[in-house]
Amino acid sequence: MVGCCTVNIVNKDNRGVQVSRLLFLSGIPEPYGEKLTIIKQLITCALILAFFPCTTEKELRIPTYDIRHESNTFFTLPTTESDFKVLRGKEVLENRLWAEAYQNEDVEFIRVLHAYAWPGGTLRF
Predict the structure, then answer these.
(1) pTM to 2 decimal places
(2) Can you tell me the distance from the alpha carbon of 96 to that of 110, in angstroms, rounded to the nearest whole number?
């Protein structure tokens, strides 16, 4: 069972932005598979529209992700999930040259996930 969802998003100056087709695979047998696929499509479309509404104050909205870690195989202790510090709010964009380059532009950054860990061993989760 494969379903598709296409969403067209238009910003305030009517330049069209099309989100690529989102494909969902469902291994659930009939008759439930089709209903669950439709629900997945609706939830995904709602999430996309929540982050990219048709009318915004800013010209461009950019979701940002940042996970930083330097692994060293000579270090015997592994780096675990508890070693990562998650950044939230304004601290995400502080001292980020890429964000400072756009501060005078009509750009809004949507902070999705930002985390870092000090250099250490390989990752273990």
Answers:
(1) 0.44
(2) 14
Q: Which amino acid is at 98?
A: W
Cβ atoms of residues 92 and 44 within 8 Å: no
The long-range contacts involving 23-29, CB below 8 angstroms and separated by at least 24 positions, are 25/1, 26/1, 26/2, 27/1, 28/1
Beta bridge partners of 4: 23
Task: Summarize pLDDT for 77-124 with one digit per residue, the tens.
Answer: 998 888 988 887 777 777 667 677 777 677 777 777 788 889 998 888
Asked if residue 110 and residue 74 are part of one domain, the reply reads yes
Residue 32 lies in domain: 2-51
DSSP 87-120: --GGGGTTT-HHHHTTTTSSEEEEEEEEEE--SB
Report the domain count for the chain. 2
* Beta strands at 85-86 and 107-116: parallel, antiparallel or unpaired: antiparallel
- Residue 38 — pLDDT band, cuts 50, 70, 90? low
Alpha helix (H) residue ranges in the chain: 32-51, 97-100
